[in-house]
Amino acid sequence: MSYNPDKHHRRSIRLKGYDYTQPGAYYITLCTKARQCLFGDVVAGKMRLNSLGYIAFTYWQEIPVHFAHLQLDVFVVMPNHLHGILVIRDTPIKAQQGCNSTTEKFGKPVRGSIPTVIRSYKAAVTKQINLICNTKYTSLIWQRDFYEHINRDEQSLETIRRYITENPWRWADDPENPQHYSKNQDILIDLPF
């Protein structure tokens, strides 16, 4: 079957036309594929990272090393997802990007944008996990996309920070916790690690 852009169009969940290189605070949620608990367990309200969770944690901390215009705010790696706030302090220099557009398009990433940062992060974590586990299952770690919320005021930012830091305490009631899925929704893939 040949490619038909009207039929085979992947819809983005990003805000259409929004400049994701703009300074501001971005609340990010990344989920594992099929909500598999790959990164550890919550014990007595505290996240206990396993070796894969430690990779996800460490690589998130390294984001500002690779993207100097970004600063980390609070974040937490949970058994099957990650919540974090990324702060763009200043806009990356457009002249260094080799383009004038700040709007991402399929196949045309914008250097330093939130989608590009998240793609880089997910790729680095996947590569390291595959290296350690001696696998090549690149699509079995993360869901295809990510969720973001563009923070607009300080009160909202404080609410999000509290939500993130309290996330391990609420794990028993968290909708991302596999114990809450109905039998019809509980689809897990066995990974070789």
Q: What's the pLDDT, averaged over the residues?
A: 82
Total number of helices: 5
CATH top level is: Alpha Beta
- The name of the CATH superfamily reads Transposase IS200-like
Q: Could you walk me through the main structural features you see in this protein, from its secondary elements to its overall organization?
A:
- Helix content is 27%, strand content 19%.
- The protein is an alpha+beta fold and 193 residues long.
- It has a single domain, classed as Transposase IS200-like (Alpha-Beta Plaits), CATH 3.30.70.1290.
- Helix 1 packs antiparallel against helix 4.
- The relative contact order is 0.21.
SSE layout and pairing:
Blueprint: E1 24-31, E2 40-43, E3 46-49, H1 51-61, H2 63-66, E4 70-77, E5 81-88, H3 94-97, H4 114-133, E6 147-150, H5 154-166
Antiparallel strand pairs: 1-5, 1-6, 2-3, 4-5
Helix pairs in contact: 1-4
